Amino acid sequence: MQSGDLVFFHGRGFTSWIIRWWARSEWSHVGVLWVVLGVPLVIETRLGLGVSVSSLANRQIDHPTVVPSGRQLDLDLALRHLGPWYGVDGAGQGDAEAFSDRAGWECSELAAALLGLQERICGWTTQTLYERVTREW
What we know:
Blueprint: E1 6-9, H1 14-23, E2 29-36, E3 39-46, E4 50-55, E5 65-67, H2 75-80, H3 96-100, H4 107-114, H5 126-136
Antiparallel strand pairs: 1-2, 1-5, 2-3, 3-4
């Protein structure tokens, strides 16, 4: 595992099921791995927490799957956006200005941005992100 790898989660709750159904995906959530002194952390958006950093060890209940991305993590972008601003009201904004200074992030959009996948601003799902990254391998 290395910084920039993607961590896909398969939550078991009803909300996770709805997300998997809507995204036509095996996964309900995604974050980006940040390895600090050998400790794997996950940079992600979480409802009520905003963009946050959490220990991968504390997320085992959500059945994480680590997928190498082969891409560099934009840690500066991640750190600039840490905090309690997350919500579907800000997610999916489709212009470049909104992308650089978000009022909200959907997990796949944040992960794509942190990996420099900016060929589209919005519309990422866990499935399309997985397909995009694994296609490069």
